[in-house]
Design goal:
The chain is α/β, with parallel strands linked by helices. The protein contains 20 helices and nine strands.
């Protein structure tokens, strides 16, 4: 994407941030490069970059994504810096520090992405344990380690942590970390420059290969082919491979079957969506860190809990919220209260208003009544199953915006009249059965987080 492309996207941002903000903060930004998932903007001053980063980076990323740009970070550099290279002032996620000199030309590792900064909770404990194991650098016990999960759940963090740890323990080890996108760029470049032998040699000579976001190569046939050969060559030499993706190997569309089955050969672990405890833990850790930076700031009790409760999308958003909150509070010199939080983060809070899914309702209700999840959608008609099923139907109607036919489809293709009947039944029973109405109250509370 060129600066012209950016100028078009920028227009959409005007609506989002308002005219004044737009003129002051967005219009002066110039897109200087967009490569390797990083969009670089030049800015007039350091303060300017900081401000935009704290206040608008989410919006900018969002709009870049929407326009189809492959970008996961934003960085800002001073324009017309005296040095030849623009001086980097700030990054949406600072990550520039070369790995092991320049003989293994992987992507730079983010110095913050270490194990000690990774908060472990139920949703990520397996992935964390597996990553730790690989980071010990002992004999290869599973190959590859395949980490998958939704955006912002810590895949890249764990991969970098493995690389940091390995380099600490065994400085001579050749660890190569890069994104699948970078793998492709390099491959294409090697083809163009007729250096494919060098390319092959490089990738076959590493001790540990980590490829992030491998779903990117789906549908890109010659890159897949090359990846497959690289992968096999390394596995044959018993070299550790770590892969990440946004979904399980079998679910990546456009990925060749032989690659899928290769990827499934090792250990496949997923990072589950965060739960409240994990989010709170992460917030507490970050808040402690910010405390070191902004010493006189006070956080009122309940603020972190409120955020952990309300922002359940992903950790990146959670972090962004906290960064903005601290920056704002330090600027206005006020205690971080719940009110200030709600004002300052209104847009983020609105955007992450939780949407409850029918699947979630079915799962919760099944757990509560101790029946199988499959019985929710299955045909069984015994009372002990029919009742919870109807409760789930009722809650689906109440807590989601799905239509009756839509709900019917998610209950094993039942007719909408069946759903209507179920909903009515529960409504009737509620008025006389206090146990049932207590149950419903509790389930609602659980589901609404
Ligand atoms: P992914 O690669 O899965 O999209 P990242 O690894 O980039 O996600 O994580 C997004 C952000 O959230 C990073 O800044 C990362 O440090 C942070 N993060 C994610 N999980 C955790 C965790 N368990 N503890 C601390 N920080 C985390
Ligand atoms: Mg990532």
């Amino acid at each position: 994407m060129t600066n012209d492309g950016w100028v078009e996207i920028r227009e959409d941002l005007r609506k989002r941030v308002g005219k004044d903000n737009y003129i002051t903060w967005i219009e002066p930004l110039k897109l200087s490069a967009l490569t390797g998932g990083v969009a670089s903007f030049s800015v007039p001053t350091t303060f300017f970059g900081d401000w935009v980063l704290r206040n608008f980076s989410d919006h900018i990323l969002h709009h870049l994504h929407r326009s189809g740009a492959e970008v996961d970070r934003i960085e800002f550099a001073l324009e017309r810096s005296p040095a030849k290279q623009p001086k980097k002032v700030t990054e949406a996620a600072p990550r520039k520090r070369a790995t092991n000199g320049d003989e293994v030309p992987g992507a730079p590792l983010d110095t913050r992405f270490t194990f000690d900064r990774f908060v472990v909770g139920k949703p990520n404990e397996l992935a964390h344990a597996a990553a730790r194991r690989v980071a010990e650098g002992g004999p290869v016990t599973f190959n590859p380690l395949f980490l998958y999960g939704g955006v912002g759940l810590g895949k890249t963090h764990l991969m970098h942590a493995i690389a940091h740890e390995l380099q600490l323990r065994q400085p001579d080890l050749r660890v190569l970390y890069l994104s699948a996108e970078q793998f492709m760029y390099r491959f294409v470049q090697a083809l163009r420059e007729r250096q494919i032998m060098d390319f092959k040699e490089l990738f076959r000579s590493v001790d540990v290969l980590m490829v992030d976001d491998v779903q990117f190569i789906a549908g890109k046939d010659s890159t897949q082919e090359e990846f497959f050969h690289t992968f096999n060559a390394l596995v044959d030499q018993n070299k550790q491979i770590v892969i990440s993706a946004d979904r399980a190997p079998g679910e990546i569309k456009g990925l060749e079957d032989r690659i899928k089955s290769r990827l499934q050969c090792g250990l496949v672990v997923d990072l589950h969506p965060t739960d409240y405890e994990l989010r709170l833990g992460i917030l507490q850790q970050k808040a402690e860190f910010y405390h070191g930076q902004y010493r006189d700031l006070v956080i009122a009790p309940g603020v972190l809990e409120f955020l952990a409760h309300r922002i359940s999308t992903n950790v990146r958003v959670l972090e962004g919220a906290l960064t903005r909150l601290f920056a704002f509070a330090s600027l206005v010199g006020r205690e971080i209260t719940l009110d200030l939080t709600q004002d300052c983060l209104a847009d983020i809070l609105r955007a992450s208003d939780r949407k409850i899914t029918i699947e979630e309702i079915q799962r919760r209700v099944a757990e509560h009544y101790n029946i199988r999840l499959s019985d929710m959608i299955g045909p069984k008609r015994v009372r002990t199953i029919v009742r919870p099923r109807q409760i789930a139907m009722y809650l689906s109607k109440q807590l989601t915006s799905r239509s009756l036919p839509d709900i019917g489809r998610r209950f094993g293709g039942r007719d909408h009249t069946t759903i209507m009947h179920g909903v009515k039944k529960i409504e009737e029973m509620m008025t006389t059965d206090s146990q049932l109405s207590d149950d419903l109250q509790m389930l609602k509370r659980l589901l609404q987080g």
